[in-house]
Amino acid sequence: MGKKRKVEQLFFLKEIGVNFLSPEEAEKIRRELLIKPANREKGEETQKRDKISPSKEKFLKEIEEEVASCKRCELYKNRKNYVFGEGNINADIMFVGEAPGEEEDNQGRPFVGKAGKKLTEMIEAMGYKREDVFIGNIVKCRPPGNATPTPAIRRTCFPYLQKQIAIIRPKVLIALGNVAAQTLLDTKETITRLRGKFGEYQGIPVMPTFHPSYVIRNYTIPVRKAVWEDLKKVLNLLNENS
Ligand code: URA
Ligand code: SF4
């Protein structure tokens, strides 16, 4: 089988939602399509972006310190740890989730529980590694019982993410689920309607897609296919603009 056919077949398997690709397969496709994850290959673009990272780091540290002592909403009372977000601060892609769950609250890191495992699969299916992208949340402290954060709490905490986005300046944002999509796009539309179409936040394209927890709960071919369609649109956008 020719190279092209093989890639087409892998895409076909993905299209029908067979599974997310293994990291090896994803890497192969990435190479075929010449998608360049930030900072993995030392291109000029990457080096240019690297140069500004010392100040980026300093600014992000300052925001993290604010979050660490934040009492702006009641969620500080029950948190074990705040979850600031983590990853490549020069990333092309920033994933935005809702709020920390139990495991995230325990570890102080985003998407490290079951949903995190699914998110990692999504990232690797795109040909990236977790450390190539930046992962953050709208809300930095865990809502007790994993309740959906209220609009008031989202509004109170969102400025921290706004600052993170302004500093990191990713080329594209991926909004995971209702809370992230509605907050970034300032709308009450639901994810089912929003997903698959680029919106915009401060001049940055936003692709809303289903939250990995939703994918776990609804592990059906249409849902997986939809997520993969959305992620492919992001890859195409990055490819067009590189
Ligand atoms: N779900 C989210 O939205 N964010 C996390 O960090 C973990 C689970
Ligand atoms: Fe502050 Fe956000 Fe935590 Fe509320 S959720 S205490 S606003 S950091």
**Could you tell me the strand content as a percent range?**
5-15%
Question: Which distinct ligands sit in these coordinates?
Answer: uracil, iron/sulfur cluster
Helical content (DSSP H or I, runs of 4+): 40-55%
Rounded to an integer in angstroms, the radius of gyration calculated over CA atoms is 18 Å
Number of helical runs?
11
Structure description:
The protein has helices at residues 3-15, 23-33, 44-51, 53-68, 102-107, 114-125, 151-168, 177-185, 191-194, 212-217, 221-240; strands at 86-87, 93-97, 134-137, 172-176, 199-201, 204-209. By secondary structure, it is α/β, with parallel strands linked by helices. The chain has a single domain (43-240), classed as Uracil-DNA glycosylase-like domain (Uracil-DNA Glycosylase, subunit E, 3-Layer(aba) Sandwich), CATH 3.40.470.10. Strands 1-3-2-4-6-5 form a six-stranded mixed sheet. Strand 5 and strand 6 (204-209) form a beta hairpin. Helix 1 (3-15) packs across helix 2 (23-33) and helix 4 packs antiparallel against helix 7. The longest helix has 20 residues, at 221-240. The protein is globular, with a radius of gyration of 18 Å. 40% of the residues are buried. The model is unreliable at 15-19 and 33-52 (pLDDT under 50). It binds uracil (URA) and iron/sulfur cluster (SF4).
Keywords, separated by commas or semicolons:
single chain; 242 residues; alpha/beta; Uracil-DNA Glycosylase, subunit E; 6-stranded mixed sheet; 11 helices; 6 strands; 51% helix; globular; binds uracil; binds iron/sulfur cluster
